[in-house]
Amino acid sequence: MASSVSSRRLALLLLAATFATPAAWAHAHLTHQYPAANAAVTASPQALTLNFSEGIEPGFSGATITGPQQEAIKMRPAKRNEQDKTQLIIPLEQPLKSGAYTVDWHVVSVDGHKTKGKYTFSVK
């Protein structure tokens, strides 16, 4: 009898795990970016390029950059690459000076889930 109860609990646990797993993957996770996290680039990028694990909604997605003196860096509006709906491109208004920069990004995936994160890079 105890074996039957244990088997039922195990079956319910496996069933719950099966249905819970897709929800965890239903968010747009940052897969890679340029400039890369913790990278030291020799020249200022012209834009941030952020790539995600699934399609994103450009109207609800974007980023801010904070510079070496904690100043906000001016950027142009973010645009989704229409050939790759997982890629967000954010042009910079002017070249970045030498120093460390922090990128705070936020996106809404095509299924409506919100995700955000942060990374740093530097310009030599």
From TrEMBL:
Xref: Pfam families: CopC (PF04234)
Any coiled-coil regions, as ranges: none
GO cellular component entries: periplasmic space; plasma membrane
Record keyword Acetylation present: no
Ranges for domain CopC: 27-123
GO MF terms held by the record: copper ion binding
Cellular localization per UniProt: Periplasm
Record GO biological process: copper ion transport; response to copper ion
InterPro entries: CopC-like (IPR047685), CopC/D (IPR032694), CopC_dom (IPR007348), Cu-Rt/internalin_Ig-like (IPR014755), Ig_E-set (IPR014756)
Keywords assigned by UniProt, alphabetized: Copper, Metal-binding, Periplasm, Signal
Gene3D superfamilies tied to this protein: 2.60.40.1220
Range of residues in the leader sequence: 1-26
Keyword RNA-binding: no
Family: Belongs to the CopC family.
Biological function: Involved in copper resistance.
Protein's name according to its UniProt entry: Copper resistance protein C
Gene source species: Salmonella enterica subsp. indica
Organism placement in taxonomy: Bacteria, Pseudomonadati, Pseudomonadota, Gammaproteobacteria, Enterobacterales
